[in-house]
Amino acid sequence: MATVIEAELIRFAQELVKLRSYTGQEKELAMFIKDKMTQLAYDQVKVDGLGNVFGVIGNGPTKILFDSHIDTVEVNDAVQWSVGAFSGAIVNGKLYGRGAVDMKSAVAASVYAGHAIKKLGLDKGKTIYISTSVMEEDYDGEPVHYLLENSGIRPDYAIICEPSNSQLALGHKGRALIKVDVQGVSAHGSAPEKGVNAVYKMNAIIKRVEALGQKFMGIQGDRGSLALTKIDSDAVSLNAIPDHCRIYLDRRLVMGEDEQGLAQEMELLLDGTDATWEIHSVAGKSWKGEDIVLHSFLPAWEIDEAHELTTACVSAFEELNGCKPRMTTWDFSTNGVATSKRGIPTIGFGPGDDKLAHSRDEHCPVSAIVRAFEFYTNLVAHF
Ligand SMILES: [Zn+2]
């Protein structure tokens, strides 16, 4: 039976890669996964108001959520790929294509794990949720927040299936996106003395940003960071003094840094200026037409090595591989912000090298997909 399921699992992963699913445009893929879960005899298959698809196995008191997002970043360099970006081709034992790493291999592994869990009767005393969520790339955490808020799902544990090189990811840094605004006074470009140049005013603030960024770089050990990532300005014409300038700051956060602390930091940074700032909000619509807004303050999270979820993962891994997994943390943000924020113990494990995410010729070893499928299935037996 094992090899038949493995062959099906890999074919499914290939089909997932072939179906383009840019953020907000996941309808076709979502329906495909919904049908697959139904075929695989999930106890329930649901699509929520945002367009997240989730399958349910069992109805016991211990509730475990596996989450994978089904959207991908776009391909804008298709001609430079060595294999078709949506071919789902397997070359030298590796699955190629957009999403092969981030994170359709994990989608396939978790959907088939749900199937195997049911078939092997591992769902006794448990409820397993296999979530295949939308819009993660631009709205980290928000789609799973929506799912938990609206579906009545209250998991005891969450596994984020983002690529971790098939090792354990215990958490990740947080991030905040900050917008700083400065007002000037418009005037004709030939008479700058009659106006106030907003860009010149911003220049002083940029120097402070750079200095604070340097300060972060000098901190030894676990540290946050600050970077200016974008600047723009408004002027009524190219012959006018700009009356508005804004910059965007990417602030990476370590454990314990909260919104209040960030506010103090910003007040200090902008002290003595008339600049205003806010946490930037990103807004969009899901494939179902539902509005989604991300308030871009995503705190860091980390699970303890001694936590029962961690030790269950270590045991499940050891059983399959004969050795302990490496413990790492991710450099990027994930839907884990939504589960950890609610106090749900959260951990990460997924197939593929996260360094290949969003890159040309993104690929994932087929063996890693099978291993993730086995790990997810086996993990459930450890609760
Ligand atoms: Zn991802």
Reconstruct the topology from this structure.
Layout lengths: L1 H17 L8 H13 L4 E4 L5 E5 L4 E8 L20 E2 L2 E3 L3 H20 L6 E8 L2 H4 L2 H10 L5 E4 L7 E5 L1 E10 L14 H20 L7 E10 L9 E10 L5 H11 L6 E4 L1 E5 L5 E5 L1 E2 L2 E2 L5 H14 L5 E4 L5 H6 L4 E3 L14 E3 H15 L3
Parallel strand pairs: 3-6, 3-7, 7-18, 8-17
Antiparallel strand pairs: 1-2, 2-6, 4-5, 5-19, 8-16, 9-11, 9-12, 9-15, 10-11, 13-14
Helix pairs in contact: 1-3, 3-10, 8-10
The structure holds zinc ion.
The site of zinc ion has 5 residues, from α3.
Describe the structure.
This protein has helices spanning 2-18, 27-39, 100-119, 136-139, 142-151, 198-217, 259-269, 308-321, 336-341, 366-380, and strands spanning 44-47, 53-57, 62-69, 90-91, 94-96, 126-133, 157-160, 168-172, 174-183, 225-234, 244-253, 276-279, 281-285, 291-295, 297-298, 301-302, 327-330, 346-348, 363-365. The chain has a 6-stranded mixed sheet with strand order 1-2-6-3-7-18, with helices on both faces. Helix 1 runs antiparallel to helix 3. The protein starts with a helix and ends with a helix. It is α+β, with helices and mostly antiparallel strands. The protein has 10 helices and 19 strands. Strand 1 and strand 2 (53-57) form a beta hairpin. The structure holds zinc ion. Zinc ion binds at residues 69, 102-103, 136, 162.
